[in-house]
């Protein structure tokens, strides 16, 4: 059973709004007075040059980094200081995938998604092109394959807010299409996705572009 | 009680101007008291009937030992303020004061050793209070080391705050454990409740030099903090104006 | 991620990396061997010094094993995942510590009776030594994790961590060796044991929170 929540209606007031965000990284201002709103059902893509702070912005939203100034609201609640409310609904995939080298592929997924059956995990691995790898130790896989283990979590989670840092890098053309379809399915079901990518996205996704200057 | 001054101290700009006014005052008063206290103690106070003139190093040893402890207390409180209220000036205080406290601890250790030679016949005795000053020095070195090792300023600020708070809670335990472990030293020179065991003419210069040392260190700490504030706030307009108006 | 899946994964991870626990144990053995070889193998030296020797070795071995506790999690990004997991970070730290404590201290406690014979500790004193280890070692782990969390982002954090954490170990070492020394001369040692327990309890309340603050500051 994949994505148990699929048919369920999600609360409609799910949204993430950022106002007056200022981020400083090693003596450099990355976001100056940055504001945006992302609502349920939307895919937001953070646009910007290399080094403009796209990943940093994702980390700040996830609560891994602290902004210098500014506020973040999640469904109307101020989460500028405590992200607990967001974290309950959050799936964040950063630059480092969070895959443990000493675990097998299935063990890695079991750790993150303990409530899934092994069949569901097999299916998810099949989708990301890792069929038959479930008992392989992760350290025997390439960096790209390890990232795809992390991506498999998207098929196993019921979290509503996805923050994805360059999710398409490890995927081939077919994989990109599959992931785009998954993102579309997620937002159609009332989810919310913020991502960064260098790739052009498919037109079927209604992408809201957020410019970082 | 009015706490506005406390909140104002959290603002770097306000602190900078406040320190401009008070640092010179603290420096002059502190230096005068320190010089008078030490000169009085070294030249005019009566010699100890047991230790003779060698006891006079107390006028350097005790103020620096007290300052070393007070600075660590300050560090701990600032660490707590930094962690709980995220006040901007607290990490600045820790960064500015930790080296001063370490220097005070070193002076206390060296003067203690010099004092120990004629008194105990050895440069170093593992007595409780010398040992706790040594440990205090090591704690300071830990704070300084972590401040300098972490390049990321936010992380470094958090790290020294955490270590200071942990140190503040541990300091009494360490002191108690070391005292329990061994006590050879004479009892504390200053007690708040009891009448001083020293005669007045010995005790007064000690009080003067201790207070003077407080003022002196406070002034240096303020200057160090001002420098750090300028570095950290270098992008803000008031710093640019300050530099343009008054130079560096 | 849930608390139980995290706990299970920690057990699994430590089981997969048995070598780490073995390293700490061998290190412990090595430090103890230094004293008879470096100072004197005589019973007159070793018997009174045994408590101190064992405790110094334990402190160093614990520091060494705790130092790397978050390293791999930091490098592979799973430490970030813990921060955003929505679970209470101090509890996760505590679970991780509990697993590490069992993995390091259990074999060490098994080894202690053998070592105590090598250091001429009497059988009556042995169980005092074991009691101090059980009561005092949690404090070593708990204080150590703060240092580990603070220095996790540094490539060469081990020395720095030693520098900032070792002074905080002094009370534990003093009271543990104090209890053993008191037992050796036939004096009561309950007080020292009680203080050891108190220190461990105090660090139990404080350290996970401080370690969580440090982890949050380190992952960026």
Would you mind describing this structure in some detail?
The complex is a heterotrimer of chains A (213), B (248) and C (220). By secondary structure, chain A is α/β, with parallel strands linked by helices. Chain A is 27% helix and 26% strand. In chain A, the strands form two sheets. In chain A, strands 6-7-8-3-9 form a five-stranded parallel sheet, sandwiched between helices. In chain A, a hairpin with a 2-residue loop joins strand 1 (15-25) and strand 2 (28-39). Chain A is globular and about 50 Å long. Chain B has a domain at 56-187 and 201-234. In chain B, helix 4 runs antiparallel to helix 7 (200-232). Chain B starts with a helix and ends with a helix. Chain C has one domain (3-219). Helix content of chain C is 85%, strand content 0%. In chain C, helix 1 packs parallel to helix 6 (89-118) and helix 3 (43-67) packs parallel to helix 7. Chains in contact: A-B, A-C, B-C. The interface between B and C is medium-sized, with 30 and 28 residues.
Topology of this protein?
The complex is a heterotrimer of chains A (213), B (248) and C (220).
Chain A: E1 15-25, E2 28-39, E3 43-47, H1 54-62, E4 69-74, E5 77-78, H2 84-87, E6 90-93, H3 105-112, H4 118-127, H5 143-152, E7 161-165, H6 173-188, E8 192-196, E9 207-211
Parallel strand pairs in A: 3-8, 3-9, 6-7, 7-8
Antiparallel strand pairs in A: 1-2, 1-4, 4-5
Chain B: H1 4-9, H2 12-44, H3 58-85, H4 89-120, H5 128-149, H6 153-181, H7 200-232, H8 237-246
Chain C: H1 3-16, H2 18-38, H3 43-67, H4 71-76, H5 78-83, H6 89-118, H7 123-150, H8 158-184, H9 190-218
Helix pairs in contact in C: 1-6, 2-3, 2-6, 3-7, 3-8, 6-7, 6-9, 7-8, 7-9, 8-9
Mean pLDDT of chain A: 84
Q: What percentage of the residues of chain A does DSSP assign to strands (E)?
A: 25-35%
By DSSP (H or I, 4+ residues per run), the number of helices of chain A equals: 6
What is the number of beta strands of chain C? 0
Kindly name the structural category of chain A. Answer: alpha/beta
Q: How would you classify the quaternary structure?
A: heterotrimer
What would you call the structural class of chain C?
A: mainly alpha
Low-pLDDT stretches of chain C: none
Number of strands of chain A: 9
Q: How many DSSP helices of chain C?
A: 9
Rg for CA atoms of chain A: 17 Å
Helix content of chain C: over 70%
Major beta sheet, strand line-up of chain A? 6-7-8-3-9
Between the first and last Cα atoms of chain C, what is the distance in angstroms?
21 Å
């Amino acid at each position: 059973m994949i994505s148990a929540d699929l048919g369920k209606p999600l609360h409609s007031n799910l949204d993430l709004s950022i106002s007056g965000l200022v981020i400083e990284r090693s003596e450099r201002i990355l976001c100056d007075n940055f504001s945006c709103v992302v609502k349920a059902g939307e895919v937001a893509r953070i646009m910007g040059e290399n080094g403009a702070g796209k990943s940093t912005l994702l980390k700040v939203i996830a609560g891994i980094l602290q902004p210098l100034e500014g506020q973040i609201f999640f469904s109307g609640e101020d989460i500028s200081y405590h992200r607990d409310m967001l974290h309950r609904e959050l799936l964040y995939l950063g630059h480092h995938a969070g895959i443990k080298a000493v675990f097998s592929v299935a063990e890695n997924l079991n750790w993150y998604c303990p409530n899934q059956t092994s069949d569901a995990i097999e299916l998810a691995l099949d989708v990301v092109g890792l069929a038959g790898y479930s008992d392989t130790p992760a350290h025997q896989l390439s960096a790209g394959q390890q990232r795809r283990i992390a991506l498999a979590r998207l098929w196993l989670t019921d979290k509503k807010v996805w923050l994805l840092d360059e999710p398409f890098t490890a995927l081939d053309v077919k994989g990109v299409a599959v992931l785009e379809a998954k993102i579309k399915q997620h937002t159609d079901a009332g989810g919310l996705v913020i991502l960064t990518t260098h790739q052009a996205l498919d037109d079927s996704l209604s992408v809201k572009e957020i410019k970082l200057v | 009680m009015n706490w506005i001054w406390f909140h104002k101290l959290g603002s770097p700009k306000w602190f900078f101007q406040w320190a401009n006014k008070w640092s010179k005052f603290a420096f002059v008063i502190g230096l005068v008291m320190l010089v008078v206290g030490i000169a009085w103690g070294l030249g005019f106070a009566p010699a100890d009937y047991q230790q003779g003139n060698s006891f006079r190093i107390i006028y350097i040893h005790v103020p620096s030992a007290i300052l070393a402890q007070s600075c660590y207390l300050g560090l701990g409180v600032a660490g707590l303020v930094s962690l709980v209220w995220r006040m901007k000036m607290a990490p600045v205080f820790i960064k500015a004061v930790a080296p001063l406290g370490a220097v005070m601890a070193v002076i206390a250790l060296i003067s203690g050793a010099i004092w120990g030679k004629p008194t105990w016949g050895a440069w170093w005795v593992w007595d409780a209070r010398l040992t706790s000053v040594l440990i205090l020095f090591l704690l300071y070195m830990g704070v300084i080391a972590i401040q300098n090792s972490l390049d990321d300023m936010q992380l470094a600020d958090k790290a020294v705050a955490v270590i200071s708070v942990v140190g503040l809670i541990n300091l009494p335990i360490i002191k108690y454990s070391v005292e329990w472990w061994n006590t050879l030293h004479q009892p504390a020179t200053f007690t708040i409740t009891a009448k001083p065991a020293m005669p007045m003419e010995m005790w007064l210069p000690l009080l003067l030099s201790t207070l003077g040392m407080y003022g002196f260190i406070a002034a240096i700490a303020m200057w160090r903090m001002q420098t750090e504030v300028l570095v950290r706030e270098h992008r803000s307009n008031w710093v640019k104006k300050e530099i343009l108006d008054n130079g560096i | 991620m849930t608390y139980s899946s995290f706990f299970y994964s920690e057990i699994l991870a430590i089981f997969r990396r048995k070598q780490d626990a073995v390293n700490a144990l061998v290190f412990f053995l090595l430090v103890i061997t230094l004293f008879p070889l470096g100072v004197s193998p005589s019973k007159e030296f070793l018997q009174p010094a045994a408590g101190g020797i064992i405790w110094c070795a334990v402190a160093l071995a614990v520091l060494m094993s705790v130092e790397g506790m978050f390293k791999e999690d930091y490098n592979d990004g799973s430490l970030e995942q813990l921060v955003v997991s929505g679970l209470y970070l101090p509890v996760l730290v505590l679970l991780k510590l509990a697993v590490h404590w069992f993995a390091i201290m259990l074999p060490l406690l098994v080894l202690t009776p053998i070592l105590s014979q090598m250091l001429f500790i009497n059988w009556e004193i042995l169980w005092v030594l074991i009691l101090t280890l059980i009561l005092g070692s949690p404090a070593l782990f708990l204080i150590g994790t703060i240092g580990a969390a603070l220095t996790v982002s540094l490539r060469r954090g081990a020395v720095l961590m030693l520098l900032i954490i070792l002074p905080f170990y002094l009370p534990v070492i003093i009271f543990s060796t104090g209890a053993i020394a008191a037992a050796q001369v036939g004096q009561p040692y309950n007080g020292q044991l009680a203080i050891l327990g108190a220190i461990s309890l105090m660090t139990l309340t404080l350290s996970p929170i401080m370690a969580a603050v440090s982890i949050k500051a380190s992952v960026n």
